[in-house]
Specification:
441 residues; alpha+beta; 4-stranded mixed sheet; globular
Length: 441
């Protein structure tokens, strides 16, 4: 009797294990079945696709027994972080999502479908080549990025991250961080470009901000902790404080606003969240959300402390400022129909920020000489990293109905924003004005 009982128990145990195993398999099949099917059908899939830039330049194509890129190595390299590759080496490329989406995997049949498709991107591959060359002119070890978009339509025209690689060069020696898309998949200490967020909050929350004067002798103590400025600006208005990028003034503004208000604005503008760009997840940012005290709050208001910003989030903010507070949802794909839009800030706030950013260029950046002919509104950032180096930011837009370009430029550990990233932005904008015909809403 005992033997029968033991055998029955063993059979029940085996049955339970089989059922659990089948359950786990089904869960994995539903979750990863497409990956399995695509692994075995890469060259046998009946689907074919063509990936084009906005001018019809072939960036990639695939079909039966072929997976191809542009025949031009320079095009492939400059546009690598847009296209990605067929093997998923970088997680933020269009190609991997486009290619896998084309296969139309069915969990019931375990097979992929047959379909022919053409996907046209908003990217101008010529612009990406130009941006890539501008960044690499700083040196072969340069790490950085640039985004450029049409803030009236949401179309992203340029997206370049370096270091990059030629996806067909299997012998290339890869630089550290080659597969990181710095435009979308990374966040960085923002430095003084963050003062735009603090300024927006001040415009809306401090009634007499435009009548307030700030005094700076190069240092200011908050609760016994010194806030160090880059110079002595003495008596200055709110507008002049942004132009001077005065740490003393903006630390005081952040403390007056209070941490809860600052967190509300950082969150409202989307800097703490991960977003999606045509199905590609972007990096989230960070800001001190737990109590830190006034000295640390002061540093956070000038873009230091634990502040981290994804360049894509900064681009969205700038597009809203340029467009009267309304954000036209950015896209990498040329699509028919009206793009989605949302109001990110009040029109009056956006318009005052626009005027202040233009004043920066005229008053402090020697605009006529450094940015000739451009109706530029901009802000520099020199984000100190604690080891003597700093990220060089230059961000802004053109207040120009014919050329509604917004941009974010960053060179990692590149020194000063105006002297390092400023010339890159100028050259790229000058090229874009001359060579890109844009659609206007």
């Amino acid at each position: 009797m005992r033997k029968i009982t033991n055998r029955a128990f063993s059979l029940l145990l085996i049955a339970a294990l089989v059922i659990c195993g089948m359950g786990l398999y089904l869960m994995e099949y539903v979750d990863r079945g497409q990956d399995w099917a695509l692994y075995f059908s890469r060259v046998n899939s009946g689907s074919s696709g063509l990936l084009l830039d906005r001018n019809g330049q072939m960036l990639a194509s695939f079909g039966q027994s072929r997976e191809e890129f542009s025949p031009d190595a320079h095009v492939r390299t400059a546009n690598y972080h847009v296209t990605g590759d067929y093997w998923g080496r970088t997680g933020a490329g269009v190609l991997s999502r486009y290619w896998s989406g084309m296969q139309g995997f069915s969990i019931f049949t375990g097979t992929t479908k047959s379909e022919d498709s053409v996907l046209t991107l908003s990217i101008d591959s010529r612009l990406n080549e130009y941006i890539y060359d501008q960044l690499m002119a700083l040196g072969e070890d340069t790490k950085g990025m640039m985004l450029l978009s049409n803030y009236k339509t949401g179309e992203i025209l340029g997206l370049v991250s370096v270091p990059s690689t030629d996806p067909l060069d299997t012998e290339a020696e890869l630089k550290d961080g080659t597969y990181i898309n710095r435009c979308l998949s990374a966040s960085f200490t923002p430095g003084s470009v963050f003062k735009l967020i603090t300024a927006a909050a001040a415009i809306e929350q401090i009634d007499d901000i435009n009548e307030t004067e700030f005094y700076c002798e190069g240092e200011y103590e908050i609760a016994g902790v010194p806030i160090i400025c880059t110079g002595s600006h003495y008596t200055q208005t709110f507008e002049q404080a942004l132009s001077n990028s005065c740490n003393v003034a903006f630390a005081q503004i952040a403390v007056e606003l209070g941490q809860n208000t600052m967190v509300d604005y950082v969150r409202e503008y989307g800097f703490l969240d991960s977003h999606q760009l045509n199905g590609i997840n972007t990096a989230a940012g960070s800001y001190p959300t737990e109590f830190v005290g006034d000295p640390e709050l002061g540093w956070s208001g000038i873009g230091q402390s634990t502040d981290m910003i994804c360049p894509y989030s900064m681009l969205c903010f700038l597009c809203a400022v340029a467009n009267g507070g309304e954000l036209i949802e950015p896209s990498l794909v040329l699509e028919d129909g009206e793009p989605e839009s949302s109001r990110l800030m009040e029109a009056a706030t956006a318009n005052q920020l626009k005027q202040m950013m233009n004043y920066n260029v005229v008053d402090h950046y020697n605009g006529e000489e450094n940015f000739p002919g451009l109706k530029l509104c901009a802000k520099t950032g020199t984000a100190e990293l604690g080891d003597g180096s700093s990220h060089a930011w230059f961000v802004g837009f053109l207040a120009d109905e014919e050329h509604p370009f917004a941009f974010v430029t960053l060179v990692e550990r590149g020194g000063y924003g105006l002297s390092t990233s400023g010339p890159i932005a100028n050259n790229v904008l000058q090229w874009a004005v001359e060579n890109i015909k844009v659609d206007k809403q």
